[in-house]
Amino acid sequence: MSESIEHVLEETRHFDPPAAFAARANLKSRADYDRMYRESIENPEGFWGKVAEEFHWFKKWQRVLNADAAPFYKWFEGGTTNLSYNCLDRHLDGPRKNKAAILWEGEPGDQRTLTYQQLHREVCKAANALKALGVHKGDRVAIYMPMVPELPIAMLACARIGAVHSVIFGGFSVNAIVDRVHDAACKLIITADSGYRRGAVLPLKPVVDEALKQCPTVEKVLVVKRGGNAVTMQAGRDHWWHETVAPASAVCPAEELDAEHPLYILYTSGSTGKPKGILHTTAGYMIGAAVTAKYVFDLQEDDVYWCTADIGWVTGHTYSVYGIFANGTTSVMYEGTPNTPHEGRFWEIIEKYRVNIFYTAPTAIRTFIRWGDEWPNKYDLSSLRLLGSVGEPINPEAWMWYHEVIGKGRCPIVDTWWQTETGSISITTIPGAMPTKPGSAGLPFFGVKVAVVTEEGEAVDAKHSGTLVIQAPWPSMLRTLFGADDRYKEVYWSKFAKQGWYLAGDGAFCDANGYYMIIGRLDDVIKVSGHRLGTMEIESALVSHDLVAEAAVVGYPHDIKGQAICAFVSVPRGITPTEKDKDTLRNHVATQLGPIARPDQIRFTDSLPKTRSGKIMRRLLRDIAAGKETKGDTTTLEDFTVLAKLREHAEG
Ligand code: PRX
Fold it and tell me: What is the pTM (predicted TM-score) of this model?
């Protein structure tokens, strides 16, 4: 980066893996890591080919990696497999058949356990029901659900028959659903009447009904009964899960699918335009998800593992469902919020299920800190042996709290950096093999060739930050943006086209030990509570309101959420906005996109600072939102007075 910054804050604390942990770990030493990493980089085809042997294939691949049409890479070409088979059927012949796959806890305290055998049966029934509703291989199925077992069942059912699922986070609302369903031309949507959230029933089906007024491709709706709220069922279109899936046959052989058969689309926000439909395919994703889970979470046969992420995000896809079930691990799933009915709920669940591995987000950790140590201290957390963090940079203070108060100084913490696009963990420590360092993600995972470079692609030294790139393809990488190959090339591969590198969009630096520390996004993506939001999507929601002529949205630092949302809004001529209008607009965005996108601040302004070519100067707006002095070059600013006016309108 031309504006690379010198690092003054050098973290010197580090924590070695506890000897007892390393002794029984899947990867026991730095030397083992170094050897495997070297092999994965020097001979990726040999390395991944060997790893792939551990999975079930209907037909073996002919070529591990085909880079002929880069950046449209193909992995395990010629092979056929099925991820649902690898997550379920593969475990049914041995001692795992009656092992718990899902330990589910509803928010009101109800619980369900599904063994691998039971999960297999439910998935087969759901797959047959989908077929009966007209879903064929390759069709797209939207899933908009609360955190109930039918959500992973639906995903595995799609994977079983080769339908492509597109899970839409249950916290999104109408417009977000419309955009996503429309973009992928989904044929069917699976939803629920409602889910439990903060002690109340949160209706989902009515939101779907509203969205479907604008989604002509959807022919059928499959509805799980959860909250029991009254819903309207449209005859011919809407079907209850319990009436359709329960009576279906429990025999449904897994479809033999090409290694590159599309598995799922997951929409994620970019800095410009509509959300991007990240496309993952079958075999490479399966292998990346399973192998990272095995080594990074050090999965052992008797572990109880809990990832707190909603399955609507990639973390849940890879590390509550696919990577976890592919390893035959027991996974805890919790429906609700961490403070319902009390602020010790997570710790109560850890005690109740004797959770060994706990994976959560920095924003949650910072919230727990605020709620006070008395909550975790009330419960027996002695079953924990490994902790994980994901989604945004974890500040060293939060890291230390996690280490001491939750891990009691015994549990390694894996700070895992990855993205919806990478499909699986890309930078992390491996807990039995290497020390951890607060605030630092660690070393690249096998097969991930990373570097920190300048804007021009030159290496930067350990004192400077730069742009994070991945310099070679890896199995679980995204294959394209659904229906938008050109945009895929443009967004990820154009910046370093000459070198053929993947642009991650993050700033990072690599210290003298080769540990990577992620600083944050370099583009206009905001990370609110670890959730990735595009400024553009929020701006579009704002300008759809009559009170808004133009809007620019930026993120600013927030103690708990990591980043908060500030919207600069200019109103049409002749209108004088009031304080009440701020609430109106905040609520408008929440209704359009979902509560997570609700701006924390609205600032009215006559006009927005722009360059002479008409581009909004977001860097300036970011500084203003953060209450900072405006730094850097403002010579291209079209109207200097705008800046002064924006400051006048600043609010606390
Ligand atoms: O900015 C990085 C941040 O989250 C982005 C990816 O967001 P998303 O696709 O929603 O996936 C989140 C879960 C994998 C990254 O570009 N990020 C993710 N993990 C970390 C992180 N930043 C710092 N440290 C992490 N461990």
Answer: 0.94
Ligand 1 near 420 CB (within 6 A): yes
Domain count within the chain: 3
> Which residues of the chain carry a pLDDT beneath 70?
1-10, 629-652
Residue 614: per-residue pLDDT: 78
Residues 368 and 488 in one domain: yes
Whether residue 9 is contained in a domain is answered as: no
pLDDT digits (tens, 9 = 90+) for 524-573: 889 999 899 988 889 989 999 999 999 999 999 999 999 999 999 999 88
Any idea what the CATH number is for the domain that residue 125 is in?
A: 3.40.50.980
513-536 in b/e form (b: 16+ CB < 10 A) is eebbbbebbbebbbbbbbbbbbbb
Q: Is 391 in the pocket of ligand 1 (CB under 6 A)?
A: yes
Would 627 be classed as within a structural domain? yes
Q: Which domain holds residue 534?
A: 528-648
* Of 532, 533, 563, best ligand 1 pocket probe by most atoms within 8 Å of the beta carbon: 532
Q: Give the C-alpha distances (Å, rounded to integers) separating 533 from 207, 391, 519, 521, 539.
A: 20, 12, 17, 11, 11
Which atom of ligand 1 lies nearest, measured to the CA of 393? 23
Q: Which of 239, 255, 271 is the last residue of a domain?
A: 255
What's the pLDDT tens digit per position in 224-276? 999 999 999 999 999 999 999 999 999 999 999 999 999 999 999 877 778 89
**116 and 222 part of one domain:** yes
Please check whether residue 295 lies inside any domain of the structure: yes
Q: Confirm or reject: Cβ of 502 under 6 Å from ligand 1.
A: no
Using CA atoms, how far residue 260 sits from 88, 281, 479, in Å, is 20, 5, 9
